[in-house]
# Entry
Amino acid sequence: MGSTAAPEGALGYVREFTRHSSDVLSNLNELRLRGILTDVTLLVGGQPLRAHKAVLIACSGFFYSIFRGRAGVGVDVLSLPGGPEARGFAPLLDFMYTSRLRLSPATAPAVLAAATYLQMEHVVQACHRFIQASYEPLGISLRPMEAEPPRPPTVPPPGSPRRSEGHPDPPTESRSCSQGSPSPASPDPKACNWKKYKFIVLNSQSSQAGSLAGESSGQPCPQARLPSGDEACSSSSSSSSEEGATPGLQSRLSLATTTARFKCGALANNSYLFTPPAQETSKQAHPPPGSECLSCQNCEAVAGCSSGIEPLAPGDEDKPYKCQLCRSAFRYKGNLASHRTVHTGEKPYRCSVCGARFNRPANLKTHSRIHSGEKPYKCETCGSRFVQVAHLRAHVLIHTGEKPYPCPTCGTRFRHLQTLKSHVRIHTGEKPYHCDPCGLHFRHKSQLRLHLRQKHGSGWALTFTPTLACLSRYFSQRRSLAMGLALTGVGISSFAFAPLFQWLLNNYAWRGALLLVSALSLHLVACGALLRPLSLTEDTAVGGPWAQITSLLCHGPFLRYTVALTLINTGYFIPYVHLVAHLQDLGWDPLPAAFLLSVAAISDLVGRVASGWLGDAVPGPVARLLMLWTTLTGVSLALFPVAQASTTLVVLAVAYGFTSGALTPVAFSVIPELVGTGRIYCGLGLVQMIESVGGLLGAPLSGYLRDVTGNYTASFVVAGAFLLAGSGVLITLPHFFSCISLSTSRPQDLVIEAPDTKIPLPKEEGLGEN
DNA sequence: GTTGTGTAGGGAAAAGCCCGGG
DNA sequence: GCCCGGGCTTTTCCCTACACAA
Ligand SMILES: [Zn+2]
Ligand SMILES: [Zn+2]
Ligand SMILES: [Zn+2]
Ligand SMILES: [Zn+2]
# Structure
């Protein structure tokens, strides 16, 4: 139950307030601009510039060597004769106080010289990059040494501030500058919007309607209630403890408290409002919290987050309601009740738009927002809106700069728990994601996926349509059987490949298995080479792809056929989407319901082969067979609502599987008969593109019907009706009723007689049946 | 270009919690 | 006052697209 994120035994560790440093810096800058507590005047190029020695020392090795020691204390005015120019120095001084470096092609060399003089190495690098980038478009590569200004007068002493600590690293600034957009008027929004973020927090506290409505309805610092963890601490709903708290006390918070509970009462909460501008603080709607929070803070601060906090034993008295099935315990009785649905698989709440099912109404409600487009939670900083509060919470971190998840091993901090988790695997060497077909292992899930798509998926997908098209060019006599076998092969191989590869993996280790699979795939190349494109006589007549497409779109029978297939597709997939839900409505358990779907899928495979064979054995136009299968599929679909007994349902599922499977190869075989083998590539592609619209529309439509009527009866009936309508359109195809002589008739004869394909086909059986 | 790594957005499951009604 | 269930809030996890650098 507990979060795995909390490291074992780490009862708390240092919480970093990443905005703090920039807050301090901006305050220092304000002090400089107002001349408060500045203790040195720099004379650069005759210009006096007031600054704080401490800041100068912290940023520059040169100033460190000047001011360190007692001699530096008395220095009130420092002139730098022969040093940097004012136009190079001023941007550096600004940078020290703002971490933003303004560069332009005109000033960059001067800034570079000044930075080198002052030993600000990061800035030197940034200037180099900038100058280089601005020359590269001209084809001039400026090497750093060529632009190197004279060495500074002093060598950095051994004790000078380390660059990584004392010198702000300006990676983002330098990059944005090098892109040529140094715009002081519109500084980096992420760097400047912390005040705005504070305003969000205040907004939510004062119970403003709208944006953070959910959070703002919360109680102001419910002291009797223990905040449940770090998230709660940083969430805006618990942000009312800001006044009376000090940053120092607040800067240590336990991250490991996510699930633990504490003896010391309410935990100090919020981190964002310690230094709010006075005018914003005055807008507080709620008074500061009572002393309980303060004492907690004290105990925490004094104890340094370790000794002062002791998680109570996960007391059973805390959660008296236990699940008999999985030992989970709950504080509230109702939770146990709703927990049971986890085991029963019961999901009574159904989305009226997409049919998704939920075991809790609230989850359905949240889900339904993705259809309505409602996004109730708005980020006041950037205006982005979110469907869930949690998303907003995660989002505002990018404005605050907060990274709440540190790596226990190397200390790198992350903004998202997920990132930390995958990062930790770097240390453990864990690579949990692996690709079965090729045995590669990956640390990140997105890698598994990318690899699959690029190395396997696209290959298979890209071979599918061309192979079918090739088939229809090769086979004219037994085209249907070829289609059926090919489609069955596709289905079976996708089932069989995983276990086959697993077996190879077990017997040959992954290298061997990979080798064997590669060898297997190379056979594909050989096979593919055998499938060399036939140059059929009619190819010369069909023209280029665009000409083909244009002609196909004006081809009446082809269009009618496309419409028919689209109609068929609309109803075709309904059982795969809704059959399980329908069976559950009838009281079936999810598992048997899913099993019945598998039965239908197997029946589908059988149907593909059988229909391929039948397609060649039964005389007459293949379109007639297609109509037969379509009609039968439609009827079996429409019968689903009638069936109540499980045996009837099984029979229906088998029938639907068989007929719908039988339909598939025939549907592909008809196309060459309609458009001729010359235009088969374009024809097949076009049909697949258009008919997919039907497949996309079918499921939502039947889901909608289910919601309107309350059950799936109409859904299945309408699906069946679409199939029947499709077969109705099929009747209009040319020569549907023609009675060409049976055994001697060959499919290509039909083509010859088709009005739009006038060119007779050559005999090609010799080649095709090799 | 590939690979590894990190970021942000978004969907969902499930527990926590509040509140009104009986 | 107590209990119960409905319904909202929170927490946590997961997936996915994408950016970026070695
Ligand atoms: Zn359980
Ligand atoms: Zn939905
Ligand atoms: Zn925002
Ligand atoms: Zn680490």
